[in-house]
């Protein structure tokens, strides 16, 4: 009991609360602290959900980590990516297949080999507005588009 009272007294002094605490005040503070922790957990969970959604949506091609592109079962996902004119597009391309692929955008001069089960960070300029096709050269049915917007 003395140890617990010592910690409450320390907390009271650190937080500059009046007192010493009565047992009724201790009970109230316990509930306030418990409720504050519950709210903090809710805020943390909401933040995790928000950041996960932002990551899945890619936050555009120029988000902090760049748009995420997965190669799996001989397909790109997502198949449409957005970028802005005049910016440096940054894509993190991960190959989940057991064979090598390429990420090629002929009109923009991009051609990157990506080894089996490997990944690459690809950066390039998007000088003009338009829709550009990306493709895997060895597997031409693997394709997607980059929509460059103003």
What do you see in this structure?
It contains two helices and nine strands, in the order H-H-E-E-E-E-E-E-E-E-E. The protein is an alpha/beta fold. Strand 1 (67-72) and strand 2 form a beta hairpin. The protein starts with a helix and ends with a strand. Mean pLDDT is 78; it is low at 55-64. Strands 2-1-4-7 form a four-stranded mixed beta sheet. Helices cover 32% and strands 38% of the residues. It has two domains: 2-56; 60-149, Immunoglobulin-like (Sandwich).
Which percent range fits the helix content? 25-40%
Tell me the CATH architecture of the largest domain.
Answer: Sandwich
Q: Which strand order spans the largest sheet, edge to edge or round the barrel? A: 2-1-4-7
Q: Secondary-structure element sequence?
A: HHEEEEEEEEE
Topology, number of strands: 9
Cα Rg: 26 Å
Helical/strand content category: alpha/beta
Short overview:
This protein is α/β, with parallel strands linked by helices and 150 residues long. It has helices at residues 2-14, 23-57; strands spanning 67-72, 75-77, 80-84, 88-95, 101-105, 110-114, 119-125, 130-136, 139-149. Strand 5 (101-105) and strand 6 (110-114) form a beta hairpin.
Main features:
150 residues, alpha/beta, Immunoglobulin-like, 2 domains, four-stranded mixed beta sheet, three-stranded mixed beta sheet, 9 strands
What's the structural blueprint in terms of helices and strands?
Layout: H1 2-14, H2 23-57, E1 67-72, E2 75-77, E3 80-84, E4 88-95, E5 101-105, E6 110-114, E7 119-125, E8 130-136, E9 139-149
């Amino acid at each position: 009991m003395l140890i617990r009272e010592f910690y409450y007294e320390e907390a009271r002094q650190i937080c500059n609360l009046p007192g010493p605490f009565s047992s009724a005040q201790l009970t109230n503070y316990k509930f306030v602290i418990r409720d504050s922790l519950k709210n903090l957990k809710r805020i943390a969970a909401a933040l995790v959900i928000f950041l996960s959604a932002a990551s899945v949506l890619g936050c555009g091609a120029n988000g902090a980590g760049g748009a995420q592109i997965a190669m799996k079962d001989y397909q790109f996902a997502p198949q449409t990516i957005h970028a802005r004119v005049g910016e440096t597009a940054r894509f993190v391309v991960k190959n989940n297949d057991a064979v090598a692929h390429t990420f090629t955008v002929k009109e923009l001069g991009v051609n990157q080999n990506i080894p089996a089960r490997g990944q690459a960070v690809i950066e390039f300029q998007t000088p003009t507005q338009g829709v550009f096709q990306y493709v895997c050269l060895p597997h031409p049915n693997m394709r997607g588009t980059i929509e460059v917007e103003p």
